[in-house]
Task: structure prediction
Amino acid sequence: MESLIGTSWGVFIGMTVVIMGFAAYMTGHALASTWKPLWHAVVYCGLLGFADRFLTFALFDGKLLSLSGYLIDTAVLVAVSLFAYRLNQAHKMVGQYPWLYEREGLFGWRRKGPRGGSTDM
Result:
């Protein structure tokens, strides 16, 4: 599997999951906080994937031009960013419109009312 990610597991966990994962989490959080569309997270995480590949190459002698490494890194970063986006979006909907919505699970909200409401998102 090391050849697929272009580096060792320790570097992958440390650089991609921890350091760049934090950047992806904050990206998703910021995009949801400013009501930007979801597709922005995918674009920004694509750029974070390039930064991750370069830092892995420059600091840990990983493969710079590893397509599979870039795709795996970017997929992890997109997943983290989408998680943060949806988590923060649900929090904002309930917090900003408490008379309309109530929390339903970790990522959802529903309309308040006598019917029990349907999930809006």
Summary: The radius of gyration is 18 Å.
